[in-house]
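User: Here's a structure from my thesis project, written as structure tokens. My advisor, Dr. K., wants to see whether a designed sequence matches the one we expressed. Can you design one independently, without my sequence as a hint?
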């Protein structure tokens, strides 16, 4: 198993978070507002995991901290866009046909965004074995 990189739990969780967002966005009704909101939401949710993976390949402590702060920022941004998607689609949260989607995906994704963000809040320090770059 030499050469195999350890897969971190947060790498899986952030990927699943982005996939949940994609599935939710595909289910939303077509409209100008939803197009704009989902565009932002898809970008920010995908950026969480991308920046976390970049942090795991950091060139030094500063790079690691920088990437983790960006991942945290994108996580907060995803929560913001999720709230706006819900506001723009009130039928999704008050018994309409899409309620199961909102409850299973948006609700879970929102909780996951908060959970992942809490992990990032305490994880912006570089691992002790990481060399400092100039």
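Assistant: Designed independently from the structure alone:
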């Amino acid at each position: 198993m030499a050469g195999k990189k350890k897969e971190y739990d947060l790498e899986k969780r952030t990927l699943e978070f982005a996939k949940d967002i994609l599935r939710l966005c595909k289910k939303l009704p077509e409209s100008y507002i939803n197009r704009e909101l989902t565009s932002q939401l898809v970008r920010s949710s995908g950026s969480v995991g991308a920046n976390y993976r970049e942090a795991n390949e950091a060139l030094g402590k500063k790079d690691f901290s920088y990437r983790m702060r960006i991942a945290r920022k994108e996580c907060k941004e995803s929560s913001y866009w999720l709230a706006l998607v819900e506001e723009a689609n009130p039928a999704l949260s008050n018994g309409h046909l899409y309620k199961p989607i909102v409850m299973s995906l948006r609700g879970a994704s929102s909780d996951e965004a908060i959970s992942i963000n809490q992990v990032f809040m305490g994880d912006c320090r570089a691992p002790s074995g990481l060399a400092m770059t100039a």
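When you compare it with your expressed construct, this may help: The longest helix spans residues 61-88.
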